[in-house]
Design goal:
about 325 residues, 14 helices, alpha/beta
Amino acid sequence: MGNPKHTEVSVARQSPQRPDADEPELDDTTGPAEPDDADESDEAGRASAPTDRSLWDEVRIDPVEIDLPAGTGFTLRAYRPAGALTPTDVTERDQDDPFLARRQVVEEEDDETVVILDEELAEEFADSDEEEPSRRRRDGATDADATADDEDEDVADEADDEEVPVFLTHRGKLLLFKTPESLVSFIRSGAPNDLSQLDSWNELAERVEPADIAPLDEDTYELDLVVENLRGGHDTWDSTLLIKAGEAARDLSYALRLPAVLDMLSADSSLDDLDEALRATVNGGIGGFMGRRRLKKIGAQTASLGWRTIVGKISAVVDWRD
């Protein structure tokens, strides 16, 4: 989570009332009393008072606003160690996709195709498999294998410790709410969702109010504008818009288990090259110059088509809640 940014709260001012007709008009030397300096400072302080972020800091969960072609919605996101999370269950979602369902059936059939010619022969194979590791270790042939296993365990431990995104999802669907009130109502309802596995979820459910659903600028993503912006050509590309969209798409595709989107944004892909070039231009200097040169080599049509696919795949797994 990034450092919280202060958002200003505007204070509406009432227009002054017109004087009654019976009251004498003020001459040039007499006027209404000037506001006290203390009152002015208090009013300015109220106008610039930052939104209270203590709740979100304590529960380590953030409100997020996502703009998609179908509308704007609010949801929640957190980052936790991968080993402490249970991924969202996409079984039901993938069964609704006839292409994914058909592929899974084929894979299961391939995995389960086992031909046993003789039961005694099968038992011999099983016994030999059990004896093989100890025999190989006695012969001194497994030292390299043991080292490799240890390295694999270290890599697995590091992967478990890495913080990964988790959203307000359920059964492979991203839950998006059109109003803060509907989001708060869901949080308090006790309805099943993937964020409820977090140890701070109950505290959030007890304390959250609609006024708390005020995402920071860094947690607001306008995915609905990405394709149109890319179509405008290199000179009109909005670096901030596109970089933030890439961050959101990576987080969403990981949390929602969308491998196709992860592949499209993976290292050395054309869209990843676009992201790195945009970041270079933002940083400025010689890197910015090189970044601008790299951007000119990226086809606007290819980038817009790729992003249209990404936005479409994310939109397809959204569960809109009123």
